[in-house]
Design goal:
With 322 residues, this protein is an alpha/beta fold. The chain is built from ten helices and 15 strands. The strands form three sheets. Strands 3, 4, 5, 6, 7, 14 and 15 form a seven-stranded mixed β-sheet that branches. It has a six-stranded parallel β-sheet with strand order 10-9-8-11-12-13, with helices on both faces. The longest helix is centred in the C-terminal third of the chain and has 16 residues. It is globular, with a radius of gyration of 20 Å.
């Protein structure tokens, strides 16, 4: 089968197109013919060796994909050969076939195509766990969503609106703000706006109750300042790749909370995954929320896709197609 193979850590230049043996599903696994692959910034960090979990070489990158079930390993129930599924695993998606544990397979509503299904798992489940499970969001509260035109941002805007939150979106370009507005954002501001803090206070009267922090670096302090009393800062990434400075005593003044968000540990929590699936699936099936697919690259152009994401040119989820 065709796959992207990584033998050493580095940038897009270490991605090699290779011919590898087609995997066979072990007991408890599902073999999937990959139809589309969601490219995440975490994949880029993993290839660099900079992700939260260590990268074990050599390996096939890719944690998120959709495809049709090809074969069931011993003891697997609940899915059928030929069924379109989405899946979320640690690696192995940058290939024509991959075998994943059955617990990693997620249902796909019939109204989603393969590209949309590939854009579903990471962004929508992260948004749910950030806002609901960790952020304890309540109907009527306000949330500021950074990088609102990206894959996680577009998912988070929609999930937040479905939870009954007031959504303020920020992004680097006006066209990304327009996308956020079309998805339901109540307010949208350029992240570079020098009056951003005052605009947020003007809109909310007190600051936001929750803030999804994806940028880090020097903007981290600004994010804290934009929180309302008892506000929760949800740290999901650091796109700036710069260190942020936190003086814990500053949290005391407004009883603020800083909460780290990482999807991976939730994957082993069956109750948490079930709760998220039960919330998201009806919304997806009814068309109330929908993954936003950006540019699609052939698998052979994985390096170009990496560069595209690194240039922050993308809106929605960048997808690879085997």
């Amino acid at each position: 089968m065709k796959a992207i193979w990584v033998e050493k850590l580095g940038g897009p230049e270490v991605l090699q197109l290779a011919e590898l043996p087609k995997p066979a599903p072990k007991a408890g696994e599902v073999l999937v013919r990959v139809r589309a692959i969601g490219l995440n910034f975490a994949d880029i960090l993993a290839v660099r060796g900079e992700y939260l979990a260590p990268t074990r070489l050599p390996y096939i990158p890719g944690m998120e994909f959709s495809g049709t079930v090809e074969e069931l390993g011993e003891g697997v129930e609940g899915v059928q050969p030929g069924q379109l599924v989405a899946a979320l695993g640690g690696s192995g998606a940058f290939a024509e076939y991959t075998a994943v544990p059955a617990r990693a397979v997620l249902p796909v509503p019939s109204n989603l195509n393969a590209y949309e299904a590939a854009a579903l798992p990471v962004s929508f489940y992260t948004a749910f766990f950030a806002l609901h499970t960790l952020g304890q969001a309540k109907v009527g509260e306000s949330v500021l969503i950074q990088a609102a035109g990206g894959a996680l941002g577009t998912a988070s805007v929609q999930v937040a609106k479905a939870m009954g939150l007031q959504v303020i979106a920020t992004a680097s370009r006006e066209e990304k703000l327009e996308l956020a507005r079309s998805l339901g954002a109540d307010q949208a501001f350029l992240s570079s706006d020098p009056t951003l803090e005052s605009k947020v206070r003007q809109v909310t009267g007190k600051g936001v109750d929750l803030l999804m922090e994806l940028v880090g670096g020097e903007g981290f302090a600004q994010s804290l300042r934009m929180l309302a009393p008892r506000g929760r800062l949800l740290v999901i990434g650091s796109a700036s790749q710069q260190q942020a400075t936190l003086r814990p005593v500053e949290l005391m003044k407004k009883n603020l909370s800083v909460i780290g968000v990482w999807l991976a540990p939730f994957l082993a929590d069956r109750e948490a995954m079930l709760e998220a699936t039960q919330f998201l699936t009806p919304l997806l099936a009814a068309g109330h929320v929908k993954p936003v697919v950006g540019r699609v690259f052939p698998l052979e152009e994985a390096a170009q896709a990496f560069q595209y994401v690194l240039q922050r040119a993308s809106t929605g989820k960048v997808v690879l197609e085997p």
